[in-house]
Design goal:
Structural class of chain A: mainly beta
Shape of chain B: globular
Helix content of chain A: under 10%
Number of strands of chain B: 11
Largest interface: A-B, 30 and 25 residues
Oligomer: heterodimer
Radius of gyration of chain A: 13 Å
Strand content of chain B: over 45%
Helix content of chain B: under 10%
Structural class of chain B: mainly beta
Radius of gyration of chain B: 14 Å
Largest sheet of chain B: 6 strands, mixed
Number of strands of chain A: 11
Order of helices and strands of chain A: EEEEEEEEEEE
Number of helices of chain A: 0
Order of helices and strands of chain B: EEEEEEEEEEE
Distance between the termini of chain B: 41 Å
Chain lengths: ~110, ~110
């Protein structure tokens, strides 16, 4: 298994540009999430999904959209990038088998908005 | 609102020392608690997952305990090694139906000196 994969690893955007961060998992996990990690703020939940076709907002959803058309993929869209969205973005997945919900993380995407 | 705190923010110890990392949370109604390790510039690696009904979990030189009533968890590292140097994060999950939602502490940065 490749686990949780994210592309790209690094990205530089200009203010106002849009882009999609890709996330995929091959573990057949129902749950997928997006977090951002900022110095002094820790990891904060942006959006999450409990299954294909079902998404919900986390703690810091503004400026981001998600959709989940398949179990495997959970892309994060930045609609109009702002410098405040400069961060490291992590995608994660988890499963409910044995009521565990142990969460597995991807390697991250480092985004800079100028 | 659930808040997770990790103290100290940074810790430096000589190789071979046993050490304890602390995690506290304000709402004891948690489903489980997960400890992660993060190396610089990398993603999060799951170390231990403790269900709310459990008191501790062990993996190799690591032992994590959970005291829900007092809102505390500790991660004990035995015979520390320079390779243990990393940031250690704890995160709590509220309910089983919120499998994709973790609330993180800000981490303890551990440095083990040879």
């Amino acid at each position: 298994n490749a686990g949780v994969t994210q592309t790209p690893k690094f990205q530089v955007l200009k203010t106002g540009q849009s882009m999609t961060l890709q996330c995929a998992q091959d573990m057949n996990h129902e749950y997928m999430s997006w977090y951002r990690q900022d110095p002094g703020m820790g990891l904060r939940l942006i959006h999450y999904s409990v299954g294909a076709g079902i998404t919900d907002q986390g703690e810091v959803p503004n400026g981001y959209n998600v959709s989940r058309s398949t179990t495997e993929d959970f892309p994060l869209r930045l609609l109009s990038a702002a410098p405040s969205q400069t961060s490291v973005y992590f995608c994660a997945s988890s499963y409910s088998r044995w009521n565990s919900f142990e969460q597995y993380f991807g390697p991250g995407t480092r985004l800079t908005v100028t | 609102k659930q808040e997770v705190t990790q103290i100290p923010a940074a810790l430096s110890v000589p190789e071979g020392e046993n050490l304890v990392l602390n995690c506290s949370f304000t709402d004891s109604a948690i489903y489980n608690l997960q400890w992660f390790r993060q190396d610089p510039g990398k993603g999060l690696t799951s170390l231990l997952l403790i269900q709310s009904s459990q008191r501790e979990q062990t993996s190799g030189r690591l032992n994590a305990s959970l005291d829900k009533s007092s809102g505390r968890s500790t991660l004990y590292i035995a015979a520390s090694q320079p390779g243990d140097s990393a940031t250690y994060l704890c995160a709590v999950r509220r309910g089983g139906n919120q499998g994709g939602k973790l609330i993180f502490g800000q981490g303890t940065e551990l440095s083990v000196k040879p």
